[in-house]
Amino acid sequence: MKRILVTGSNGQLGKCLQKIAGNYNSLDFKFLDSKGLDITNVKSVNSAFKSGNYDYCINCAAYTNVEQAEKTPERAFAVNADGVNNIATACKNNNVVLIHISTDYVFDGKKEGAYYVDDIPNPINEYGRSKLAGENYIQKILDKYYIIRTSWLYSEYGNNFYKTIINKAHTERVLYITDEQTGCPTNANNLAKYILNLITSQNTKYGLYHFTDGKAMTWYDFAKKILIEGNLDKKVRVEKAKNYRTFAARPANSVLSA
User: Fold this and answer.
1) Pairing outcome for strands 186-187 and 97-103
2) Which residue in 17, 18, 7, 11 sits closest to 52, CA to CA?
3) Residue 243: what pLDDT?
């Protein structure tokens, strides 16, 4: 029986892991949200690891507000960098294998094709920089780790693009969506299965991984797909947004490939 600590369990990936945890009889889970375990608190992290006798830690805890990270980067770095440093150190001291979730935003988006795990990161916003700093801490501290970069996560949980489009489709007749960014929408339920299968397969090929649902598209394309699948495309029209602007710079191309 493998003991698994899941941090950030109240986020959409954490909830997806909780939903399928019962299907994995060989795994024993401890789910902790930010109230149960603040990863920025060294004492709290050390206490949680020492008392748990864990084999793996799945770190879902993250600061993901890209726009706010640009305005208050210290908050993003506190969680995504310093907090990850705390987790990695605790994993090292307690012989725990770390599975850490990272992002496509560690890349600048200037590449024409898909990004591979050995491409050199070059984030263009504070969120991406904070996530890359977390990756660097892990690689410096640990030998046994999986850093899984993913992109455009969505699910039935939390706040995400998929739920936003569905909700707006019930109140608006025209949706203006940008086509200036291309990536791979990824269902968090599929990522959750991938992570747990990684554990149960006893894979010891540690290092960097990319995981997405594999199909590249723009946010505009994704919105149209969501409406079609929800049988809402006859009621709501999607148009390409003009003069699309965000406070944080975002990579134009963040397609990930293994």
Assistant:
1) unpaired
2) 7
3) 75
Superfamily for 2-159+185-215?
A: NAD(P)-binding Rossmann-like Domain (3.40.50.720)
- In this predicted model, what pLDDT tens digit does every residue of 168-212 receive, in sequence order? 999 999 999 999 999 999 999 999 999 999 999 988 999 999 999
pLDDT tens-digit map of 113-163: 999 999 999 999 999 999 999 999 999 999 999 999 999 999 999 999 999
Q: Is 127 a catalytic residue?
A: yes
Q: 54, 115, 127, 145: which one is catalytic?
A: 127
The pTM assigned to this predicted structure is 0.95
148: CB partners within 8 A, 6+ apart: 99, 100, 101, 102, 191, 194, 195, 209, 210, 211
Please tell me the predicted confidence (pLDDT) of residue 202: 87
For 93, the enclosing helix (H) or strand (E) is helix 84-93
Going from the C-alpha of 78 to that of each of 18, 67, 75, 126, 130, the distances in angstroms are 26, 16, 5, 12, 8
Burial class from Cβ neighbours inside 10 Å (0-12, 13-18, 19+) for residue 51 reads exposed
* Sheet order of strands, 56-59 included: 27-32, 2-7, 56-59, 97-103, 145-150, 207-210
- DSSP string computed for 27-76: EEEEEE-TTT--TT-HHHHHHHHHHH--SEEEE------HHHHHH-HHHH
